[in-house]
Amino acid sequence: MTFPLLAVVAAAAPEAPTGVVQWIWLAVALPLAGFLVNGALALRRPQAKTAVSVIGVGVLLGAFVVAAAAFAELRAHPPEAPLIVQLWRWMPVGFLDIRFAFQVDQLSAVMLLVVTGVGSLIHLFSVGYMHADEGYARFFSYLNLFVAFMLVLVLGASLPVLFVGWEGVGLCSYLLIGFWYAVEANSDAGKKAFLVNRIGDFGVLIAMFMLWWSVRSLDFVTIAERAPLRLAAGGTLVTTITLFLFLGCAGKSAQIPLYVWLPDAMAGPTPVSALIHAATMVTAGVYLVARTNFLFSLAPLSSAVVAGVGAVTALFAASIGLRQYDIKKVLAYSTVSQLGYMFLGVGTGAYVAGIFHLVTHAFFKALLFLGAGSVIHAMHHAYHATHSQQDAQDMRNMGGLRRHMPWTFALMLLATFAIAGVPPLSGFFSKDEILSAAFGRGQTQPIWILFWGMGLLAAAMTAFYMMRLIAMTFLGQNRTGEVERQHLHEAPWVMTGPLLVLGVLSLAGGLLNLPALVGGGAALERWLEPVVAVASRQMPLVMPEGPLEWALVSGAVIVALAGLLVGWRLTLARPIPTAEDAPEEVGFGRVLNRKYYVDELYDALIVRPLVGISRWILWKGIDQGVIDGIGANGSAGFLRGLGWLGSRLQSGQLGFYVVVFVLGAVWILRAVAR
Amino acid sequence: MLLGPSLILSALLFTIGTAGVLVRRNAIVLFMCIELMLNAVNLTFVALAQVLGVNGQVMVFFVMTVAAAEAAVGLAIILAIFRHTRSVDLKTTNLLQG
Q: A321-325: long-range contacts (C-beta < 8 A, 24 or more apart)?
């Protein structure tokens, strides 16, 4: 393999962008400054809640303004190549010259807007939700730090810069899941998330090493240029690289087999679940696949794996969601399932559809989580007022809340219709586009028909469990308790306001990418076209058209409506017992309720053997046995024994010394005489 | 020139001295046996000096000087032991055992 020096030099010096884009680093610097100030306040003045609120939300709004300005600039003057903002030389080591650089293009602009926009709303919501919490300042400093790292992730112009953000959001996720660290289960959940993500990060690192080894660059632009020349399409190398990348994505975006951390991550405060574990961080894997579409489109096998894992995860997680009672657990499995959809999209080659679903999902899932937060807020207050020890998150303890919190009810119902795919809400368009793309690829590769079928079944389940959530929470008779009922109330405007905005976005998000079928211009499709240009050449998509498309769409709508109807009727068919009185689950429902015993399986297959090997072989065996026993204590004991033998000679008896002396003298004499 | 008988005598004396050092427990006797061994060696030197030159006789003076110094130090040690233990039996002086 030869590496022309000229190419390296040429790639190292792109022209610096002008205008707003060169200030893009402000979008990262503002939340980072917010983290520092709020962190200092958390240490020094934890009660200065007004200052914390102003700074925490203000920096996010500032970042949003920067993002919007960059977006407008990009829209006004569409660049031919991604704009690279060089900040500093980071790791100049021989040929490896990594610069800390941000890449502003159509894809990162979309992500910027989602992260800062939805992030701002969730920050605002947190002002109300976390107001009574002691760790208010600490919460906002973590949240600001998260946004800073997330923006580094989406802006990074090379894999190492992206990886800084990738690890940083993982750290913030850990900190925020274990935010209420006094409860051991919460810090355990944080550790679980961190450790499971470690497996994925290993994959990203290996992929980076292999990319450097084969392509001699880690910048996205350079890799995109060289990959088709240096990597054989469909070859083992590019397949291995992309599979390792996907391992990282599966960890970060909670796909089979690494999804187990996300449901546990619900131990964190609800705004965290909305921001990190639904809208932004968990979609980083989808973003990475879309960002490296030029590699995935070279590896059809990897793309099939991505789509397959996505489809299976969508179905698997949705089925678990059917039988959960914790309102946040339902939403968590729903998130895993919807992420599966996104991977089905990007694995199919429908990168735009995947990103589209990412955006709409950020809207309606953030709305669902914040709505659930508002419900939990009310329930918590009710139980707090009566000193009840009931579970404020168990849907069996809710019911009939629509009379107490009409706004939350209306908005969550809207989000439910959006996620179920009822036209013309946002989720309908994005989900339908993914399913159509899968069906379209199924025309040439039959396995995709299976993926499509799984996706459709998952859509039915999604509609069912979401309607079940609504019915158990808001409809029917209230089960909270006679006294507690008096204390149920709607959340303050600072919480319902963001819900309202997200409601509008969930309603109208479909406008972003209206398909030609209903006379739309597919705006997102055209906007992202330069990003996925290479991929759509290498792996062209055949979308179904005409009557077939109409049939698919109406099929999906019928499935969604049927799921909603069945979910509604079946849930309210008979009275729901409260969590205390609920009978033991039986049959398959029990298997679903226990999440297919996957945690137990992992515990038995991985955790216990690992702990066993660590304890009995590595600790007691090698460390205590070999190193301490034979190494340290063994050598000391040997020398002590030798010394003891020597000391036996020192009897103190002069006669004995003389005998030894004479014998020695005779022995020497004998040797000399010879 | 009595070389043979002289060497035999000095060998006998040396053997007696060695045997005394090995078997006796009285420090004074032990000391005297060491002197006997030294003087046996002196006798050898003197006897052999007749054949091999005067060097042997010079060596004898060195030995006598060292023996005198050794006698002074040795007797002082024995005195100290006696003061300490009221005995010159070497069985009782085993303080330096390991």
A: A321/A461, A321/A462, A321/A465, A322/A461, A322/A464, A322/A465, A322/A468, A322/A592, A323/A585, A323/A589, A323/A592, A323/A593, A324/A465, A324/A593, A325/A394, A325/A395, A325/A396, A325/A579, A325/A582, A325/A593
